[in-house]
Structure formats: C-alpha cells, structure tokens
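Renewal narrative, Specific Aim 1. Our central claim is that a sequence can be written position by position from structural information alone. The example that follows is taken directly from our test logs and has not been curated for this report. It begins with the structure tokens describing the chain, in the order in which they were read.
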C-alpha cells in the first residue's frame, strides 16, 4: 500500500497536469519576486505573490463567513479538485500556492477551526508527510476558512524561522519546562514570540502543548490566538507555537502611502511576508518588519 506521502505527491502531479487553475499558479511561482532582510539572529523574506490576493484580503468575520459557501466542504469545491483520503481528513492540492508543493488538509466534517482536540492528528500528519512542514492558522490568526477545521502543508526548507532555530538553538533558546521525552523551549531574539516543543513521542508533545495552551491568554470560549507549525525529523517532532495579540497590523488598514497589504498567518510568522501588491512589496523597509512583528507578537523579554 502506498504511503500517505506517496499519495500526496502523486495527487500534486495529477492536479498540476490536469487542473488548469493549479497549473497556472504553480507555473507562475518561478516569477514570484523575493526580497531578503537579515537581522541579528533571523532572516525574513518578503514576496510579491498576486495569486494570494484572495487569502490576504479574505473577510473572516462571522457575518462574511455566514454569507459564503464553505470552499473546503466537498459540495462546494471545484469539480477538478481531487483528494486523498486520510482518515477523518482529506488532502487537497492548494491551487493558490506559496510553496512549490502546497496542500490543504481539511476535516471531512464542517467543524470550526480548533487545534487542541486534533493536535495528535496534526503531529501524525507531520510524521506521515515527512517531506513537509505542517501548519495551523487559528480562527483569528490568518485562517481564511475559520469555520472549517483544516491544516496546511508545504515543502521543508522554505521557512526562515526553522533555519533560524536550527542555527541558534543552543544560544537563543532556554529551557522552560521538561517531561520525560520532551521539552518546552523559549526561543528569543528573533523579532517575535516563539515557543518550541521538542518531543520523542506524540503523547509527550501533546502534554507540553496542553500546558502551554492553557497558559496563553484567550477570550471566553475561544482558543488562544496562535499559529503553529510542526515537522518530524530524526525521530522527533519539533513544534513551533507563535502566540499572537492581534489579527492584522495597523498598516493593513492604513490608507494610500501608509498601507502595507500583509495579513500575517503561519507562513508570515515563520519568516515569509507575502503581499499581493507589487507597490507594497517594493516599498516595505527594513524598519517596517520588526514593527509588524511587534504588533502581532511582541518578543519575550
């Protein structure tokens, strides 16, 4: 039987070959413009990617969500979009990519976006889709479908934050908590707030995630604002938790020359800031980036 990894790669090949929309936007990825900014301990990329305009400008308030059909539910997806069955979830090719291979992993049922009850599933996808990083956007943290539970996945080696951690792990991280087979680290000095869970077992990772989750501020009845990424390497899970304070920075709502159309989600918080507007891509400065991060997720002292 083919592994989930093999099935996902075959799905991607089939969709890019036979779905014109996917072929168009994956074909345009080599033309995406990229700028690099290097700070003391971290690297940030800024990209101009017009295919991401719908995600960047998505209206995710309750009224707007109620007025539109859910694009992750089977009945509303494009006829050309195929799927891989993955238990309670499906694997779909994302037709508006950021990664060279970009997947969406929705639950089969129309459930609200929430991570804690499905954290073990989240880890399992990272293990089975071992060539990818799997990530989650909270309902007020960049998820364009906060009404339908889903993860995403994309190629390893693309997100600067993970490289920053691998390079600076022993100098910029401090141990916060540990249990048998897992530890929770504070990773500091990279412009935004970052927690890292390293674990040899899914159960140990889950235990530390629950402790962190319960320590983060949250509105009544809501999960803490956060973006989460996980990868599986060298027989252990590494989970990055990026707590947040706001959904979008003030520059997103500014008018005229003050506007920067950047709506941070997990990919942006992991070091790739994406704007669908070329003018904004060209004018963003070195000083803008720390300010954007500070508004969303102030670094820990």
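The sequence written for that structure reads:
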């Amino acid at each position: 039987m083919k592994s989930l990894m093999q099935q996902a790669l075959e799905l991607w090949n089939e969709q890019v070959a036979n779905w014109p929309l996917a072929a168009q936007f994956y074909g345009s990825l080599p033309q995406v413009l990229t700028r690099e900014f290097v700070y003391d301990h971290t690297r940030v990329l800024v990209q101009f990617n017009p295919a991401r305009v719908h995600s960047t400008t998505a209206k995710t308030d309750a009224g707007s969500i109620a007025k539109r059909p859910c694009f992750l539910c089977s009945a509303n997806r494009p006829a050309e979009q195929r799927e891989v069955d993955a238990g309670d979830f499906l694997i779909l090719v994302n037709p508006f990519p950021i990664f060279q291979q970009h997947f969406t992993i929705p639950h089969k049922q129309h459930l609200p976006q929430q991570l804690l009850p499905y954290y073990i599933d989240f880890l399992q996808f990272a293990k089975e889709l071992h060539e990818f990083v799997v990530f989650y956007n909270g309902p007020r943290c960049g998820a364009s479908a906060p009404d339908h539970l889903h993860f995403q996945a994309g190629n390893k080696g693309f997100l600067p934050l993970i490289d920053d951690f691998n390079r600076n792990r022993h100098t910029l991280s401090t141990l916060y908590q540990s249990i048998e087979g897992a530890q929770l680290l504070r990773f500091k000095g990279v412009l935004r707030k970052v927690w890292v869970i390293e674990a040899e077992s899914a159960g140990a990772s889950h235990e530390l995630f629950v402790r962190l989750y319960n320590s983060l501020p949250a509105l009544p009845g809501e999960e803490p604002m956060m973006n989460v990424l996980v990868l599986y390497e060298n027989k252990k899970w590494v989970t990055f938790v990026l707590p947040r304070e706001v959904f979008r920075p003030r520059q997103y709502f500014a008018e005229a020359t003050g506007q920067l159309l950047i709506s941070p989600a997990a990919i942006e918080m992991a070091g790739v800031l994406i704007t669908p507007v070329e003018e904004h891509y060209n004018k963003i400065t070195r000083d803008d980036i720390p300010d954007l991060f500070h508004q969303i997720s102030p670094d820990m002292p």
